[in-house]
Design a protein that fits this description.
The structure holds two protein chains of two kinds.
Chain A (H helix, E strand, L loop, with lengths): L1 H19 L4 H5 L2 H4 L2 H10 L6 H13 L13 H36 L4 H15 L2 H15 L23 H7 L3 H38 L2 H8 L4 H29 L3 H6 L5 H10 L3 H29 L1 H5 L1
Helix pairs in contact in A: 1-15, 6-7, 6-10, 6-12, 7-10, 8-10, 9-10, 10-12, 11-12, 12-15, 14-15
Chain B lengths: L1 H26 L26 E6 L14 H10 L4 E2 L9 E2 L2 E6 L5 E6 L13 H14 L10 E7 L2 E6 L6 H4 L10 H6 L8 H4 L3 H4 L9 E7 L3 E6 L12 E6 L2 H9 L5 E3 L15 E14 L12 H10 L2 H8 L4 E2 L22 H11 L5 E7 L2 E2 L2 E2 H14 L3 E7 L1 H10 L4 E6 L8 H6 L4 H4 L10 H12 L3 H18 L2 E13 L3 E2 L3 E2 L4 E2 L5 E2 L1
Parallel strand pairs in B: 1-10, 1-11, 14-17
Antiparallel strand pairs in B: 2-3, 4-5, 5-7, 6-7, 8-9, 9-10, 11-19, 12-18, 12-19, 13-19, 15-16, 20-23, 21-22
Helix pairs in contact in B: 9-11, 10-12, 16-17
Classes of the chains: A mainly alpha, B alpha+beta.
Chain lengths: ~325, ~550
């Protein structure tokens, strides 16, 4: 029920806010000469129902939404749901590996820094993560592209697949998975190569945040009496870390990881733009630039659903990691 | 135990390092020679590739649809021109002499209100069916009745077929530019039968009843050398060779038009293994470009400021002497230099790529003394005005840089300009509302005929009215000059009239043209037939081949 109220609120808010933006999709969609032609203007307004009162437009949208119809994008002239089904898998394809790598690296490096609190290793990690946090995503993406594609020639320039490769039959929309399912190994390898740079950049950006959270969470746990007691009992360090430190310290880390994952899924516009990656971020940017209301609403709903689902997953993981939460 | 775990970690690390190294070693190398179209299991070879391979075209996408009846953006026009053929066309960078394509000959009546086109009899659509007069009539009338953005170019035109193989296009007004208009990609000829089966109609209510655009965005129905493979408005348009093409076989098996940021186009084409074209490397982006790459361009865009003529909107911009002062204060040479090596300071409104442009000898120059004199004559003391412009980078140039130069030049004459950058949608909306006192923007022609500017910018015409420049405010000479352009049926007479109209425009209009900038095509050295066209499709993909 909360989710339904949240989604309803998102539609009301987005619909209202976009009415306040100066300009409408007509001026963004029609040529200047066409805007001079009353017949063209009238046909456009008619086609997209722009002459209806805003409340009527919203009621129509809501009615269609309840039937699973997110409307037609004014820019692509295709159903918004279909557009999202096309672009979400592309974003998933870079977000999932980036998140997995970020969690593994973030936890490992954060733990390492905590265990070497105040020593050189800790200082290096702290400075490194600070650099990561303060690096603008577009800059990192541009530099990465320049160095690894242009200077070293070690990675492709952008896009999801080389021009001369025919995409595999669409099943999931994730090219690496679809290529595997179709048994097209060279296509799979080409798709993997195209993932490298965007995934690396997203990982760098996310891991910096995670390292700082893991480090401070672990430092707090390492200072607890029960950890000292475990060490005093003579338990091996690895056991102490695995059973007593990591489990307790991971709760706040999971919260941050969840938010970071939702952020990656809901669109990393600049990274997608620089690597010519046709994901949700680029779609959202294009929709917002063109004041494409149905597409903007569709993306907003998608983002709301993503955050809701990720929060749910995070809540479930809390229970797995900390029995006190499960029992309560 | 410890050693064993360490050993496992070492093994895993070694394997991961090997995978990363392998990826690194092969990733960049994938391009080498691969555009030959013979790449492994997923490559073009699977689709029965011939010798042409794949041509990659990188451009920053401006595209909504691949339906000829809806296409007006640059990327759409580029792709549609390769899939749909028109009655006539242009070769290379020339836009003055239409050449036969689906029509083998044509003639106009004495007052240029009726054009008779005789179709060639060997042209066929991609499904093998012949291109007939009914298809042409259907396509032109559908374009007109769809009332979309490109429909305005054929407003007042209608098509009919009095006999097999003949199409007559009638114009409400005398219009010698009809063949040029019909060369535009939007006038591409559809297979009427297939289009109608999928929701297309050429009836007068096509604007509401035609539902073929989603179909035409996924399947082409033209007679061009390429057919549509796939279309994703965010990432790429894939064209495939039309095996049924009636003319010379297309140069490539596939053409992939990719959405790539302009900066990345430069990096990508400099490292390209071949068969690649970049379309957005103009202005400063051309500086330092690898000399082995070939470039082709034409100055086809003008940049101008507009001052509103209604005193209720602005007492400052509506003052004729203020306009003269501002006009004299601009450093046209310096402004053009900001655009890069292919730009020129403005002479008139018509860019040099089109017949009717003013000669170089009439290029404008800065005259600060005259500017101060005009400012004194205006009676305005320390005038200040806000300059609105879209906060975008257009053709490799940040418009904010140009606006700042305008601000500095005006300051030298004692005019204060405050910059007002706006998001593109907000700028277009404000411009459309016609209440912006002072604005700056780029402008291209709707179709490659200079007189089309008169339809928009002559006093009382739509673009002029957005700046409050009504016919009542203009001199009789100005009105007469515009009429002379419209009445001239002979191309040379029209060009002369167009030049005279621009000279008067420079004296009394609220428009100040600052500079011309080029559209540029950059291509790898292994390609032939890559020439920039100011006709709207940028480069004719039909004529691009391996050299």
């Amino acid at each position: 029920m909360t989710t339904v109220i949240l989604l309803f609120g998102v539609t009301v808010l987005t619909f209202s806010l976009i009415q306040l933006v100066p300009g409408d999709s007509m001026t963004a969609s029609l040529s200047e000469t066409a805007l001079n032609d009353p017949a063209v203007v009238s046909a456009y307004r008619d086609k997209w129902g722009l002459d209806e009162p805003v409340t009527t437009q919203y009621a129509i949208y809501l009615g269609n939404l309840l039937q699973g119809d997110l409307g037609i994008s004014r820019q692509t002239s295709r159903p918004v749901l279909g557009d999202l089904m096309t672009y979400v898998p592309a974003t998933l394809e870079i977000a999932i590996p980036a998140m997995i790598l970020s969690v593994l690296l973030g936890t490992g490096i954060g733990l390492y820094a905590a265990l070497r609190h105040g020593r050189v290793g800790d200082q290096v990690v702290r400075v490194g993560s600070l650099l990561g946090l303060s690096t603008p995503p577009f800059w990192l993406a541009l530099v990465t592209l320049y160095v690894f594609f242009y200077v070293l020639g070690l990675a492709p320039s952008g896009g999801r697949l080389s021009s001369w490769i025919t995409p595999p039959p669409t099943r999931t929309g994730m090219l690496t998975v679809d290529a595997l399912l179709a048994g097209q190994w060279m296509t799979w390898w080409d798709a993997v190569q195209h993932l490298l740079l965007p995934v690396a950049v997203l990982t760098c950006l996310t891991v910096a945040t995670l390292v700082r959270f893991v480090r401070s969470a672990m430092l707090e746990v390492l200072d607890q009496d029960y950890v000292r007691a475990a060490r005093a009992k003579g338990l091996p360090t690895a056991t102490v870390l695995r059973r007593h430190v990591l489990r307790a310290g991971l709760v706040p880390v999971i919260t941050v990881s969840g938010l970071a994952f939702a952020s990656l899924l809901s669109g990393t516009v600049l990274v997608e733009q620089i690597f010519s990656w046709p994901g949700v971020g680029q779609y959202a940017f294009r929709a917002a630039s063109g004041l494409d209301l149905p597409a903007v609403l569709g993306v907003s709903l998608f983002v709301a659903v993503v955050y809701t689902l990720v929060n749910l997953m995070v809540d479930l993981l809390y229970g797995v990691i900390d029995p006190r939460i499960r029992l309560s | 135990m410890v050693r064993s775990r360490t050993g496992r970690v070492a093994n895993v690390t070694t394997v991961m390092a090997a995978v990363v190294a392998l990826a690194a070693c092969t990733a960049g190398g994938g391009g080498g020679g691969a555009s030959g179209g013979d790449e492994g299991d997923g490559g073009a070879g699977e689709n029965g590739a011939a010798s042409g391979g794949t041509l990659t075209v990188s451009t920053s996408f401006v595209i909504n649809s691949l339906d000829p009846g809806q296409v007006y953006e640059a990327t759409g026009a580029l792709a549609v021109h390769a899939m749909y053929e028109t009655l006539v066309t242009f070769s290379g960078s020339d836009v003055s002499t239409p050449e036969p394509l689906l029509a083998e000959s044509w003639e106009a009546n004495a007052d240029s209100t009726e054009f008779t086109f005789n179709l060639r009899d060997d042209a066929v659509f991609a499904d093998g069916s012949p291109v007939e007069a009914e298809d042409v009539v259907f396509s032109i009338n559908r374009l007109n009745n769809l009332s979309g953005s490109p429909s305005v170019t054929v407003e007042g035109l209608s098509a009919s077929s009095p006999e097999e193989g003949v199409v007559v296009v009638s114009s409400d007004e005398p219009n010698p530019s009809v063949p040029t208009i019909l060369a535009m990609p939007a006038a591409g000829v559809l297979n009427a039968e297939i289009a109608a089966e999928n929701g297309a109609t050429d009836s007068e209510d096509a604007a509401s009843e035609d539902s073929a655009t989603p179909f035409l965005d996924q399947t082409s129905a033209g007679s061009g050398p390429y057919v549509l493979g796939s279309f994703d408005p965010a990432s790429e348009v894939v064209l495939e060779a039309n095996p049924e093409y009636w003319g010379e076989a297309p140069g490539f098996d596939r053409i992939v038009i990719k959405n790539v940021d302009a900066q990345n186009q430069k990096l990508a084409i400099e490292r390209s293994p071949g068969a690649e074209i970049a379309l957005d490397l103009s202005g400063r982006l051309l500086d330092g470009l690898d000399s082995s790459l070939q470039t082709s361009g034409a100055q086809d865009t003008f940049y101008f400021v507009t001052l509103h003529q209604d005193p209720e909107v602005s007492e400052v911009t509506s003052n004729p002497d203020f306009i003269k002062a501002l006009r004299a204060s601009m450093d046209y040479e310096g402004i053009a230099a900001l655009f890069g090596q292919d730009a020129l300071p403005a002479a008139g409104m018509v860019p040099p790529a089109f017949p009717g442009a003013l000669p170089d000898s009439e290029t404008k120059s800065q005259d600060l003394d005259a500017a101060r004199d005009h400012l004194d004559a205006s009676g305005l003391e320390d005038p200040s005005v806000s300059l609105m412009y879209p906060a975008i980078t257009y053709r490799g140039v940040d418009l904010g840089t140009i606006a700042t130069k305008v601000q500095n030049d005006a300051a030298e004459a004692g005019i204060t300009i405050e910059l007002d950058p706006q998001p593109i949608a907000a700028f277009l909306d404000a411009q459309s509302a016609g209440r912006v006192a002072f604005r700056f923007s780029p402008q291209s022609l709707n179709y490659p005929v200079a007189s089309s500017l008169v339809n928009n910018f002559a006093p009382g015409q739509p673009s002029a009215m957005r700046s409050g420049w009504s016919a009542e405010l203009a001199s009789p000479e100005m009105i007469a000059a515009g009429e002379a352009v419209q009445e001239a049926l002979d191309p040379e007479a029209q060009d002369t009239a167009m030049q005279e109209w621009q000279r008067l425009l420079d004296e009394e209009s609220p428009f100040i043209t600052l500079a011309y900038n080029s559209g540029v095509v950059v291509a790898t050295p292994d390609l032939a037939g890559v020439e920039y066209s100011p006709a709207g499709w940028q480069v004719d993909l039909r004529s691009v081949r391996r050299s």
